[in-house]
Amino acid sequence: MALSVPRIVVVGAGFGGLEAAKALDRAAAEVTVIDRHNHHCFQPLLYQVATAALSPADVAWPIRHILRDQRNATVLMEEVVAVDAARKYIRTTMNEIPYDYLVLATGATHSYFGHDEWAPVAPGLKRIEDATRIRRSILIAFERAEAMADRAAQNRLLTFVIVGGGATGVEMAGAIADIARQTLAADFRNIDPRAARIVLIEAGPRLLPAFPPDMSDYVRATLMKAGVDVRTDTMVTKCDEGGVDTNAGRIDAGTVIWAAGVVASPAARWLGVEADRAGRVKVGPDLSLPDHPEIFVIGDTAAVFASDGHPVPGIAPAAKQMGHYVGTLIAARVAGQSGGKPFRYRHLGDLATIGRRAAVVKFGRLQLKGFVGWVFWSVAHIYFLIGLRYRFMVAFTWFWDYLTFQRGARLITGSEQPRQK
Ligand SMILES: Cc1cc2nc3c(=O)[nH]c(=O)nc-3n(C[C@H](O)[C@H](O)[C@H](O)COP(=O)(O)OP(=O)(O)OC[C@H]3O[C@@H](n4cnc5c(N)ncnc54)[C@H](O)[C@@H]3O)c2cc1C
Prior knowledge:
Elements lengths: L6 E5 L3 H9 L6 E6 L3 E3 L4 H5 L5 H4 E3 H4 L6 E5 L2 E5 L4 E4 L3 E3 L2 E4 L3 E3 L17 H19 L4 H7 L1 E5 L3 H17 L13 E5 L11 H13 L2 E4 L4 E5 L2 E4 L2 E4 L2 E4 L3 E3 L2 H5 L9 E2 L5 E2 L2 E6 L4 E2 L12 H19 L15 E4 L5 E5 L2 E4 H15 L3 H17 L17
Parallel strand pairs: 1-2, 1-9, 2-5, 9-21, 11-12, 11-17, 12-13, 19-22
Antiparallel strand pairs: 3-4, 6-7, 7-8, 10-18, 14-15, 15-16, 20-21, 23-24, 24-25
Helix pairs in contact: 1-10, 5-6, 11-12
Bound molecules: flavin-adenine dinucleotide.
């Protein structure tokens, strides 16, 4: 490739970064995609890995493979630690890499609202490693309880607390209830897995605040029917090895899962620019920095507002739309065209599943719930998976699990010590 073509560096191969890179497919440019992992992770299905329904390889694919046919793209597995906007370099743990255009799409991570010390005892779900760690602690809880004579200790081990009543919390609670009441029901001799206690804690007045109140009520009723103890208006004040403290009392638990908040990647710090309360970079109408039109920030790392004044939500379609917009814009600039319309977000809808046979769906005026919602949810997620083989495998796995109540990925792996004592 000629040395004189513009160098476009895309940091992060999540939903936003990949879409940006793909939109640069035909640009006469050198596109470098950098990610600290070698895989793109389909986060909406991570909870299925955490609850043993799917294997990690069902929801994550090598970035190198995804971009293998894009001749102008090079993939580097490196961690970015700084940006020198004046010299137009990014620094990784190994290299300095120059750019003419920079797209930062480094996503977000869990926020413990100033209590990072809770992280080791209340893991969040963001990466494949988080999902396998949570899967391990859920499955180990049952194994340890089976081997334990003391009833009180058994009860504590078989109590699962999920903090946060958004989509991830609801999905985790429903799936753990399925594991306890169905998948494992007949597998143990000294404990009855169906007696496991699953507590879903939400600080606000209702679950899934992005949905209309009647759908939140439906979600709550469905979870309660599945045996989940739903506690809204309840604030967690402390997480420790033995459970959680809340404003309504202590809950002893063997497993605590954090699904309560997110904070953006440190891109604002790298750039030395203003961020909002969630750490997201404030960008202009074309998603670039006001003082650096060659630097774009997209996806969960950017604070963007829709035309109605509402913040663009931190969801995959939003990141993809931003990625496509920025990739197309840079391609136009590289081709010598200028201008272009400001970014416009189009909200497609909201989806959340509740256990193995119910979901809520809100797509414009279309509102679905129950089994029909679940079918819609399943088809939508299979559609967005990458590659025919994965679509087929996931669809088959779900169909099989649906018929048999089984979960095929019940492996306890890894050497990390479980937190249950
Ligand atoms: C458990 C869970 C469930 C979700 N469910 C849904 C859902 O059902 N529907 C929905 O629409 N959205 C869902 N989301 C939100 C959605 O996944 C995000 O909004 C989306 O991934 C944001 O895309 P992004 O490109 O901004 O970041 P990401 O997709 O998170 O990608 C960021 C990438 O940057 C890389 N990276 C980060 N820091 C560095 C660094 N320093 N150096 C190099 N690389 C770096 C990461 O490895 C990652 O690959 C869910 C999120 C989670 C965590």
